[in-house]
Amino acid sequence: MRRRAWSVLLAAVLTFGLAAAGLRAAPPAAAEDDCATFAQTGHSVCGAFLQYWEDNGGLAQQGFPLTDTFTETSTVDGHPYTVQYFERAVFELHPEAINTSYYVQLSQLGRAALQARYPQSAPAPGPNLPGDCATFATTSQTVCGAFLAYWEDNGGLAQQGYPLTGVFNEKSTVDGQTYQVQYFERAVFELHTELASPNNVLLSQLGRAKLAARYPNGVGGGDTGFVSLGQLTVTTNGDNYVEWTLPIKDISSQPLLSVTVIVIFLDANGQQLDQSLAGGANIAPGETRILHGLSFKGLGYKSYQMQPPQVTVQGG
């Protein structure tokens, strides 16, 4: 059995960089006995995911793991995959490609970040970086100089994807500084002129940003890739029960077969008292549905607190 504990000091490369669902527990990507545990985040990487992490840039390229593995429905193709979030990437396990080099694939975080930050169009590009260039007919974009060298030396198409934009200036949401950046399908390159080559190209922390945006209450809470949650309203009914209502809205482009919400009630010490479940079926894109639930223990336990609603979504 091989199990390693990683205690890696945060280097300068980490100081600067920046990133429905059946949210149920999923098995690790491969054999449990081949794992590395990272003390910095308390998460382990195992099997095929660990192999990919080690073979494709490790800490500098992927970052630390931010979650364990779980099942997530892709907003791209609507299929469920075993995934794991890292600071700079999201790993997806594709069982249809087992025993091939495509068994582990990266989510297209660069494309998603571009659409989220610039929904109309990207800023007008400035001059290309000095040096050799390559033009990609697939997207009609050119990559040059330090960005091209980084692309070629760090996995190329499989790891970074095609370029989606030219080079332009962008203010970092992490440190507030302005950098020359270029968006790719799976990454955003940042040019850090304060660092010496070849360490002057860093990747935005797209994995961390995507995790915070899609799971604002943590994995197991609401998945904002498909559903937005309205105001949770609670009504007490004597000593008999508590009634709650929660509006949910399908914000995806596809109908949802079902949405299930679980509200957990805790006592003053954080011990679970009860859990209440409610759900809706066949919810159309853009439709808002009001869910109703009950906790029959109610005020029988006099005082209580509630965890953020846990949402499970099955796509259409």
Number of domains: 3
Give the termini separation: 41 Å
Q: Please bin the fraction of helical residues.
A: 10-25%
The strand line-up of the biggest sheet is 4-5-6-7
Question: Compute the gyration radius: what is it?
Answer: 22 Å
Write down the overall geometry.
elongated
Q: How would you classify the quaternary structure? A: single chain
Tally the helices.
7
Q: Using DSSP, what is the number of strands?
A: 21
| Structural class by secondary-structure content | alpha+beta
Mean pLDDT: 81
Q: What amount of the residues lies in strands?
A: 35-45%
- Low-pLDDT ranges: 1-32
Q: What is the element string, with H for helices and E for strands?
A: EHEEHHEEEEHEEHHEEEEHEEEEEEEE
Largest sheet: 4 strands, antiparallel
